[in-house]
Amino acid sequence: MVIRLAQEQDQPFLIREYLQHFSPHMGEAERYARQHLQVDRALLLEEQGFILGLATWGARDGIRTGLAQITGLRIITTRRRCGLGKLLFQAVVEDMEAYYRERDAELRRLFLFAPEETGIFFEKLGLAKISLVQDQRGLQRHDLLYVMERIGADRE
After folding, report:
1. Domain presence at residue 18
2. Is the pLDDT of residue 26 over 80?
3. What SS3 class is residue 55?
4. What is the DSSP letter of 106?
5. Which SS3 state, helix, strand or coil, does residue 7 take?
6. pTM greater than the 0.70 cutoff
């Protein structure tokens, strides 16, 4: 099993992922793929050439703020509850820290919006639930805002 940064050859996968999970609009799917290959980052969890999971994230408000957002974290349905989500999340945090370090900055805080039903997963990973955002993904589809502080707690 390997976790790797998405490359140009993964563009068709990213497009399919968008079409399946977000919208049937091809132009938006292509923009999503470009965004995660050229600006934000996408990590793929792969086993024997088969993609089992995807995590996407991006730096927010300039690198010096130390703020990063996880914009997606998915494991294929048949492999959920096997520890792969935790493995992928840990790889994302390591990638964030390396990304900031390479740019002479520090990852200070990461945040994400997650569907209400996935809350326990993120709490087990050490994220703090900050707020309920009602109707975030549609009527009666609420999100929770989660935050994880990366510096300060272990340094102060």
Report:
1. yes
2. yes
3. strand
4. -
5. coil
6. yes
